[in-house]
Amino acid sequence: MDKKPSHQEQSRHQEQDREQEQDLAALASLSPFELKDRLIAAASGTERLMLNAGRGNPNFLATLPRRAFLALGDFSVSESERSYSYLDSGFGGLPEQNGMLGRFNAFVVHDPQREGLHFLRSAVSYVHDQLGLDREAFLEEMVTAFLGCIYPTPPRVLPQTQEVLRAYLGQELFGGQIPAGAVDVFPTEGGTAAMTYIFSSLAVNGLITPGDRIALATPIFSPYLEIPLLPDYGLDVVQVVMDESADWQLPNTELEKLLDPAIKVFCLVNPSNPPSAKQPQAVLERLARLVADQRPDLIIITDDVYATFADDFVSVFAVCPRNTLCVYSFSKYFGATGWRLGTIALHQENVIDDLLDALPAGEKQRLNARYSSLTTDVPGLKFIDRLVADSRSVALNHTAGISGPQQLQMVLFALHGLMDRLDRYQDAAKALIRGRYNTLYRNMGVAPTPAPDDVGYYSLIDLRKLGSRLYGDEFAAWLVSREDLGLRFLLRLASETGVVLLPGKGFDVVVPSVRVSLANLTDFEYRAIGAATRRILEDYHRSFTEGG
């Protein structure tokens, strides 16, 4: 017969339960990316190998544009050494443009089998034939960019670089619907810097003020939920909720919330994070009609980081070019998170410049004082140029923008996408991601059921749906009645199996759910994650059948 616990033991257990509940409450308030560190600590205490499928850093990357970067580096250094060849101390000078193309062709012929050199030779041909760029000017810009020997001029973006980026964004995001020359591009230190600069410049230019409303298409990347609430901005958040039952499309009833004139900005991540589904053409067209007919003053920020993993993607920018700031990052698709390469694209005819022109006289006077060191025509200073200046506190505008080597690698990534006529790299990336999706779900014990607009970079595991598919609706109802189910599930998964995922709640997913990245582990490891998830649900089902 079991010994009845003493009063002292009962009190200790009750105190431990209270401490656990307090810890859960504290953890629930954390950003999903801060919670990740706590989960990693819990997972590291297990005897099993930790599997971190939380953060979405890919474990694949594009090698060819990196080989091209290295090959161009060899040529660039040899060009530099021509200036002071009589010195023998590793001394170089600024490269000479005159005759550079001929020297480059000779350099290529000297080593014709080098893969990176073949890519570069093709790139020089491509930009001349397809983009109308001067071969010498393009090559000279790329060489000096690699060497990093000259301040990038103009600060916002190098001239040839902008033309290549315009073409790449037009192909991958805009569906060829926007004339390339009509788009201004600002390369930034990744998509996160783009977000930071946009919110900051909208605020300092009086386009968003504390108490204004901002609409967010949820679920959404958690910083979009957190930034508007910071004291710097103090915005009132309105959620425009995607419909999970319709593959996370934005329904008409939710889009109609944008008719509220108090909403100044609408943010969406497309394809979404974490559901990883793109908005179909019908939704884009409904949004375009709403903006054109009833909200021509609305500012839209679309974050299209995962666009290149989607089939036949079209950005909101393509259908609402006048109203939209488009954020894109090379980080995920090309495996370049460490490079910090992102862009902001803005149409030259845009509503933000119109809103600046319509500001009250007092606001214009304040902004004249802010930007007077840059130009004698502050009212004519475009928002894209204010973004650049604000990113360096205005006074350092002349050294704004990202480095030459960063811009060069970005150009080589973009040319890789433009010149890959058979989509070999893109098809391989999609196949890898989607294969992992299938592996994960099969090892959870359910058939994979991707929808037509699913992208699959992440998968949002709906614990209610998964429980229903495995054990029926009655169990699913019991499961979701557990308080803090998603957080408790994550903690158990981490501490018992060494698997780290992120909470759907942190991205404003309403249902109990967890986010798994399909980009950063092996197929074998996704099998282990699927099996671990199934094992914990089996334990829950055991408690359910035993009346727990």
From TrEMBL:
Enzyme class, UniProt record, top EC level: transferase
Basic and acidic residues biased stretches: 1-21
InterPro entries: Aminotransferase_I/II_large, Aspartate_4-decarboxylase, Ethylene_sulfur-biosynth, NHTrfase_class1_PyrdxlP-BS, PyrdxlP-dep_Trfase, PyrdxlP-dep_Trfase_major, PyrdxlP-dep_Trfase_small
Region (Disordered), start-end ranges: 1-22
This enzyme's EC code(s): 2.6.1.-
Keyword entries, A-Z: Aminotransferase, Lyase, Pyridoxal phosphate, Transferase
Gene Ontology MF annotations: lyase activity; pyridoxal phosphate binding; transaminase activity
Cofactor(s) of this protein: pyridoxal 5'-phosphate
GO biological process terms, semicolon-separated: amino acid metabolic process
Domain spans labelled Aminotransferase class I/classII large: 175-526
Entry similarity comment: Belongs to the class-I pyridoxal-phosphate-dependent aminotransferase family.
Record protein name field: Aminotransferase
